[in-house]
Amino acid sequence: MIMAEPASRKASNPNDIPGPPADAPAQPPPPVALPTEEMVLVKRARKGDLGAYDELVKRYQERIYATVYHMTSNHEDANDLAQEAFIKAYQALKSFKGGSSFYTWVYRIAVNKTINFLKQRKNRQQMSLDDIDFNAEHDPDLVALISEKTPRRDINLAELQEKLNGAMQKLSEPHRLVVALHDVQGMSHEEIAEIMECNIGTVRSRLFYARQQLQALLSDYLK
Amino acid sequence: MSMSPEQENFESLQKLLALKRHEQPPPGYFNRFSDQVMIRIEAGETGRTIGERLSFDVPWLRRFWSLLDARPILAGAIGAATCGLLIAGVMYSERADMTEVSPLPVSEVAKSQPQIQLPGASPDTAVIEASAVESGAQPSLFQKFNETKKPWVVPASLNYSPLGTSN
Question: Across the interface, which of A17, A50, A161 has its CB nearest the CB of B41?
Fold first, then answer.
């Protein structure tokens, strides 16, 4: 099973080139209309309807978990942080004004929680990686990467996964987050800018530098 | 149209990063996830300390904590001031207790010690009464009882008769 990806992935350009510098004029994200159904669920949850909140959790649990997991490279930490993010969001529902979508708002909570956590655990990084699903062996891009472009042809997917996660962990938190949200989860620059509460130029520039760093770290597996 | 080497390299990197999309938690994990969140919400368990809960619920306290977090010298100064106030408070209260207790001469203390006496047979109570009058204190209930010296009378309503006297 491949993780759920937002619809915006199709719209985003996979071959992004570095954008304007970080100090480019901020473009306010377009106002996001709250889908009616989601708004109803949020209103009901705000009144204490746990069934409605359960529905909201089910909608976004995979994406929130995935983001936290790609940031931490640790299943147990991702599980705790994702759960805590949803609990915190429930407790703070009264402060949710509806200026953004519920999804963006929960994302912000999860991301902030994860960054705080990562700052605290800086010196004890331990990976606990999720298994690679069966589909990966049939992914033509990955098969090509391993069999043709990688000089170390004896490498298997599990090793590659470990190297990739190790390289991700060497990035700073903001850079790792941009890569996880854009290149792994397929979010648009606009969505990322809204979640990270920065301008699109900053997102583009962080993405560019993060990719450069990753490229240097993984050079053995890319040529 | 040919791509620049840089773009091409990024493309390889993106293909490699696609591997992360195949990383999956154990089967059935997401079936249990929301249940676990709901259980924790219902139990009121947040995974936070009391301090975190307070700082989350009280905005000014959150700002205060962040201020202390940002300025360790200020936090140290406030901590030292609090300790100083605490020590001063303890010392002041001890001193106040000492001044409130007026020391009695040894003879007065000796007189005042045996105070358990049977009603009607207490020649020493006069000493206590005299000292009470001297000090201007209110007479105690015991002293009032001694003044009246009334015998204990069983109320008639109880219809009490000692053993062997009833008809």
Answer: A50
Verify whether the Cβ–Cβ distance B19 to A218 is below 8 Å. no
- Give me the residues of A, 153-172, that contact B with CB < 8 A: 157, 160-161, 164-165, 168
Q: Read off the pLDDT of residues A37-57 as tens digits, 9 standing for 90 and up.
A: 888 999 999 888 999 999 999
Chain A residues in contact with B37 (beta carbon < 8 A): 54, 57, 83, 86-87
**CB-based contact A130 B25, cutoff 8 Å:** yes
Question: Tell me, what's the ipTM?
Answer: 0.74
DSSP-H helix ranges across chain A:
8-11, 36-46, 50-72, 75-91, 102-120, 140-144, 157-169, 173-179, 189-196, 200-217
| Contact at CB, A161 and B19, closer than 8 angstroms | yes
pLDDT at A61: 95
Are the beta carbons of B23 and A161 separated by less than 8 Å? Answer: yes
Q: For strands A131-132 and B23-24, give the pairing.
A: antiparallel
- DSSP result, B6-40: HHHHHHHHHHHHGGGGGEEPSTTHHHHHHHHHHHH
Tell me the pTM. 0.58
User: How far apart, in Å, are the Cα atoms of B105 and each of B4, B29, B102?
Assistant: 105, 81, 10
